[in-house]
Design brief:
Length: 247
């Protein structure tokens, strides 16, 4: 018969080294699990598409206002009313159905020069006979009763033509009437007084940032949506709703 173990006999306990290894392995597993979950969340978020307004409206191009289209998913009536408003058309791209007549070999005599409006392979063109300079109209403001056009400036911004197209009379006129504004004048349409980025854009575009560099005298302006859209008055509240309602 064996003798009973002494109370002072050594007990087998895990060494400190084994504890360290166990903690390292446990930490690695937790970290791996966190990474996998984050990857799956990102993948799920990328696959989910926000619900947007799916009907037709009077807007010039609904694809240009993706954030407001999300608002229209829940506020269809309000979106349709807005889409045909002056706010929605305050800054827009050019379209054949609106510009074909205005740029069909039309002329305007104003401020000592003759402006010619035509269409060629480069787009809707504005030619100034006095300076023998041509510009391509890139953006427009308005629809009815008149339309003004924007041409690129040398400083990276845009100039707003003082010539406007009368939709009802189907003719060009100068918004300054008989005033004599010559090239080089502050108030001439090629001067700083008619610089779109400084003088006009704030009221025609949503979440506009001028981004003017005074050292280089250049603009690198940005905006979130063209025209006065939902986010200009209500803010970018679409982000929280997008998370809660997806297709």
């Amino acid at each position: 018969m064996s003798a009973p173990e002494s109370a002072d006999a050594p007990v087998n306990r895990p060494s400190m080294k084994k504890w360290v290894v166990l903690l390292v392995v446990l930490g690695a597993l937790i970290g791996l699990g966190t990474m996998v979950k984050a990857w799956m969340d990102r993948r799920s978020g990328a696959a989910a598409q926000p619900v947007v307004f799916s009907g037709g409206s009077e807007h010039w191009d609904q694809n240009e206002v993706p954030i407001s289209m999300q608002c229209g998913a829940c506020h269809e009536k309000e979106f349709r009313q807005w889409a045909g408003s002056d706010h929605a058309w305050a800054f827009r791209k050019l379209g054949d159905q609106w510009e074909s007549e205005a740029f069909h070999n039309m002329k305007l005599d104003a401020h000592g020069s003759i402006l010619q409006f035509s269409t060629n392979g480069h787009g809707r063109m504005v030619h100034d006979g006095q300076s023998s300079t041509s510009w391509r109209a890139e953006w427009a403001t308005g629809r009815i009763p008149l339309v003004q056009y924007l041409v690129p400036a040398k400083d990276g911004g845009f100039h707003t033509l003082s010539a406007a197209w009368d939709v009802n009379r189907k003719e060009w006129f100068d918004i300054f009437g008989k005033e004599s504004r010559q090239p080089g004048d502050w108030g001439h349409w090629t001067g700083r007084g008619m610089n779109w980025n400084t003088q006009c854009a704030w009221c025609h575009m949503s979440l506009f940032h001028k981004n003017y560099d005074p050292v280089k005298d250049r603009y690198a302006s940005t905006w979130t949506e063209p025209g006065v859209t939902c986010i200009q008055c209500h803010g970018p509240c679409w982000t929280s709703r997008r998370r809660g309602r997806v297709a």
